[in-house]
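Lecture 7, part 2: worked example. A protein chain together with adenosine-5'-diphosphate.
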Amino acid sequence: MNVAFVASEVVPFAKTGGLADVAGALPKELSKLKCNVKVFMPLYGSIKKQNLKLNYVWSIGKIKLDIGGEVRNVEVWQIQLKDSDVQVYFIDYPKFFKRKDFYTNSPDEHLRWILFNKAVIETIQRLQWSPDIIHLNDWQGGLIPLYIKENYNWDKFFQKTKTIFSIHNIGYQGLFPANIFNETEINSKHFYPTGPVEYYEKISLLKAGLVFSDLINTVSETYAKEILTEEYGGGMHEILNDRKSDLSGIVNGVDYEIWNPKTDPNIYKNYTSAKLSDKEINKEELLKEAGLPYNKTTPVIGMISRIVSQKGYDILAEALPELTKLDVQWVILGSGEKKYERLMKKVARKFPDNVSIIIGYNDVLSHKIEAGADYLLMPSLYEPCGLNQIFSLKYGTIPIVRNTGGLADTVIDWDKSVEEKRNDGTGFVFDEYSGHALFKVIERAAVHFNNKKVWRSIQKNAMKKDYSWKASAKKYIELYEKAIEK
Ligand code: ADP
Ligand code: GLC
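Predicted complex, written out as structure tokens:
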């Protein structure tokens, strides 16, 4: 099966969040299952062609694309993904992609992604390669299903091609003002109030993807149900309900070659569930690095995320007066909305022995927190899948999560009243999205920290869990087969 996998970020080349983890791991697993996978992404300025030894694709040469009233010369570079048969193709147009950020608010943002979508299609054509499946991820590839059904339908290469659209986060919709419509080159019959690409008088690349792809999926079963509701659907619930029979959920896996405490080269000391005293060394070192005093009996809560309200920062802010009274320490890594960054810095100044906040994106430190913290907190308002809680299970770092999306699907609440019989709890789960409920769950979780027997059994339950991509990749193959039969 030929699979073109299109993503705006891919580990190890470019990452701001979980999509990159998925796009770096799922294609590798698919290729083990007899798929011929090619991945397509932009060549951002931060990706150094020389250092990575990317190959210039001579057979493609310069692709001339007329975009926004200008002819653009696009080039393509290629490399094989390490330890796999997966080919990665980079769309090179420095004027658009050599910028400080992957995603921008500049007036030509729409042109950047129109160019990317067309360039992917034309690269496929020039490779003389006919994909059975084009797998799009989030709005950045949202125009491809429509383009191949209409703008490029003359090309026999796409005659049998089916498209899958994966929703990683419905909150990001690729919305652009109506006056750029002509530049999309979408047939004008699709743009009218409530029409296939219209969203409250704007153009939505997400909606275009949802309407024109053959099948839609998202990254957990619970999120697949949640987005059908007004509360979680981000305004797309009606169109998703129209396509309910084409919508499904497949939980993300993780790449245990990268996220495994036994082999992780980024952490202070490697460990396994057989010798958790080595995990304690990671805690000591992490606290040193974070500038906090070490105390064996005080639990450390780690957080690694984009600092935005989706990730629960508003209820965390609400709960701070209560939380800072508990005997716990915090190591927080992230960046995002300035108001939360400022607030957390203020709290860290006020409680210098308990709170450390590191603003920024730091891959190595994120591994050290996974290994060194006792708990990992994800109090998300919504969470399509979430990866940190899955990593943390393997590190014996107990997740505290809200009962939503992929968090609900991957963490089992440790409930004292049933554990004697079941002994399967892997974390602590709370329901209500409020500061008080967050405080309560942390208080409940902290009670068990110094009960060594209980604590070890939760850690062992967690570390036993297997979320490798194998099972989920098989489900993707089934999804591809369903699309092909359609
Ligand atoms: P999302 O994709 O919504 O941000 P996920 O939990 O799926 O949430 O994935 C987030 C990914 O990004 C994880 O791999 C996490 O470790 C990483 N990450 C998030 N913020 C940071 C940061 N500040 N520094 C390093 N890694 C980060
Ligand atoms: C998104 C979601 C996150 C998910 C990730 C990868 O960024 O917010 O929950 O894990 O995509 O699918």
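Residues 413 and 428 are 5 Å apart (CA to CA). The mean pLDDT is 97. Keep this in mind for problem set question 3.
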